[in-house]
Amino acid sequence: MSGTSAIFNGSSRYSADFQSVVDRTVNAASLPMMQMQNVRNELSNRSSALASLDSKVSALQTAVSRLSSGLGLSSFASSVSDTSTLRATTSDGIREGSYSIEITDLGSNAASASKATGTGIQAVTSPSTQSISADTTFKLYLNTADPEAAITVTPASNNLNSLADAINGASSDVHATVVNLGSSESPDYRLSIQHNKYGANTIQLTDSAGNQLLDQPSPGTPVKYKANGGAEVTSTTRTATLAAGLSVDLLKTNATGVATTVTVTRSATGVKTSLSAFVDAYNAVVSELDSNRGLGTGALKGDSVLTSVGDALRRMAGYESGASGLSSLTSLGLTFDSSGKLSLDSNVFTEATGSDPSGLTGFLGTVTGDGFLKTATDIMSSLEDATNGIIKSSVSLLQTQMTDQDARIASEQAKIDQLTTDTQARMAAADALIAQMEQQVSYFSSMFEAMNAANNSY
Question: Which of 42, 16, 12 is nearest to 402 (CA)?
Fold first, then answer.
């Protein structure tokens, strides 16, 4: 007889045998579930391996997209022949070229201050408690004398500081401040208003009675400059647009007849850096594929997704534009070794792009237009698209299979648990019955032995 399991404790001398029956029955019923668990483990291993491949392919997709940025704004650089006269800023749309600008007048702002005396005007020694007028509503005239075009200004409080704040909130064309034209002992606070645009602008402020509260403004003058030797241009701002994507901030006038030159050049350094990152990402995908092929024990061995990714890499690496000059990755200095991995020859790249910079732009093209970037982007999308991508679809399918397998295992486990309970109940009933019979046998045996002993005593 075998030992008694912890899940079954009988009282007859055959209880261990009954437990053995339970164990054998449960073990036999568990064989299909063990096979299900083996399948589940295999699916889990495949899912982990596919996730690893997905991360490598996703990194390659990112590397492809960054090739485009290597030809973007970061590939342009600007230099200024005299940085004391202007500062250059580049933006999207910039092109290589040389531009000149002669700054003849930086211009000035029209400005005006409140009058010291006059009808309706009050002296101010405390700008936080006093104002230049007892009124609470004013009219601000900018380059106009028409009351209909005037701007209504209503301070929150009747003091000079509040009036300046209200003017600043009413118009972005001017800026109002409060200045002390007197001494510390005898302060004389005035309202000062300056026009934000350069040129001959007029400024006036009146009270509700129409009294003019400001002195005549200091006349402003426009900014003037000559671009690329052309006619003099007047402007209300010290920022000039020399070309699409190129603006300059004017800092100082030039000597008469002398212009400042802005030179915009383009470098392939950004593309080279991005191309090196592309090579690393490409090789990482190749290594991941190799780990699941041949004599290896990769969980994806034999999976069609390996073939799909491998074909995608070959199509991308074998792209040719059909044009002369820079027409393939090989012409850019990329070569393959015997294992199918890429390497970049910096010298070949520098020589090729240095002699044909426009050819690099033509070969790479754009993500949405044509060229290598368009082809590579479409290839990567066929693998990584969230809805129809081969890898993403495989990941989703595996997840569904694992969920279904978990449901089958749970259902099978419920059946085994029920079988275990039922079998234990039957064996326990049999064991109890035998135990009862054993007790009866023991009782009658004891009784017969007592009777025999009594008979033998006579």
Answer: 42
Q: Quick one: 5 exposed, middle or buried, by C-beta within 10 A (0-12, 13-18, 19+)? A: middle
Q: Do the bridges between strand 151-153 and strand 86-90 make them parallel or antiparallel, or are there none, so unpaired?
A: unpaired
Which residues neighbour 239 within 8 Å (Cβ) at sequence distance 6 or greater? 247, 248, 249, 250
Does position 92 have pLDDT exceeding 90, yes or no? no
Q: State the distance between the two ends of the chain, measured CA to CA, in whole angstroms.
A: 43
Phi, psi of 280 (to 5 degrees): -65, -45
pLDDT at 3 over 70: no
Please tell me the distance from the alpha carbon of residue 168 to that of residue 193, in angstroms, as a whole number.
9
Helix, strand or coil, per DSSP, at residue 174 = strand
Structure tokens at 34: 């063990």
Please name the amino acid found at residue 20: S
Burial state string for 13-45 with b = 16 or more CB within 10 A and e = fewer than 16: ebbbebbbbbbebbeebbeebeebeeebeebee
Q: Which candidate, 202, 134, 146, places its Cα nearest to that of 173?
A: 202
Asked whether residue 109 carries a pLDDT value surpassing 90, the answer given is: yes
What is the C-alpha separation between 268 and 353, in angstroms, rounded? 7
Per DSSP, 445 falls in state H
3-state secondary structure of 140: strand
Q: pTM for the full model?
A: 0.61
Among 7-21, 37-51, 71-85, 168-182, which is the least confidently predicted range?
Answer: 7-21
* Nearest-angstrom CA–CA distance, 67 and 286: 20
Q: Please state, in angstroms and rounded to a whole number, the distance separating the CA atoms of residues 359 and 379.
A: 23
Residue 7 has pLDDT above 70, yes or no: no
Summarised one tens digit per residue, pLDDT across range 340-393 is 899 999 999 988 887 666 788 888 888 888 899 999 999 999 999 999 999 999
Q: How far apart, in whole angstroms, are the C-alpha atoms of residue 37 and residue 319?
A: 45
The 10s digit of each residue's pLDDT in 237-276 is 999 999 999 999 999 999 999 999 999 988 788 888 889 9
Q: Quote the tokens at residue 51.
A: 């996730």
- Expressed in percent and rounded to 5, the helix, strand and coil fractions of the chain are 45, 20, 35
